[in-house]
Automatic annotation (TrEMBL):
It holds the Pfam family DUF604. This is Uncharacterized protein. It comes from Dillenia turbinata. It comes from the Eukaryota.
Length: 112
């Protein structure tokens, strides 16, 4: 975050086994004002972690400033998604639900 990315709008976070379609993501995020603080995604009914979510660039700059203190204060949190969620909760930023952000258990993808 040390660099200024003037054309950056969103940061999308996913786990290595999370599948999404970039075109659908772009279409969904285009419905929101990227200049405001947004945390967009959906609660997972299956996973505690491995969330698929996006945060707006202005919000990411704020999170970056407080993230190191999170690592020191909350070593029990595991994974970037839990740590980012905790920081956003401290900032009073709630999740904006986007139904198109959803997860499917990987086992069902392998079942024929």
């Amino acid at each position: 975050m040390a660099l200024n990315h003037f054309d950056m709008r969103w940061f999308v976070f996913r786990d290595k086994d999370t599948v999404f379609f970039p075109e659908n993501m772009v279409q969904t995020l285009s419905n929101y004002n990227h200049q405001l603080w947004y945390y967009i995604g959906t609660d997972s009914e299956i996973y505690k972690q491995n969330r698929l979510f996006a945060i707006s660039y202005p919000l990411s700059k704020v999170v970056a400033k407080v993230f190191d203190s999170c690592l020191e204060r909350c070593p029990h949190l595991y994974g970037s998604d839990d740590r980012i969620y905790a920081r956003l909760a401290e900032l009073g930023i709630g999740l904006t639900h986007a139904p198109s952000f959803h997860q499917v258990p990987t086992q069902s993808l392998l079942t024929f």
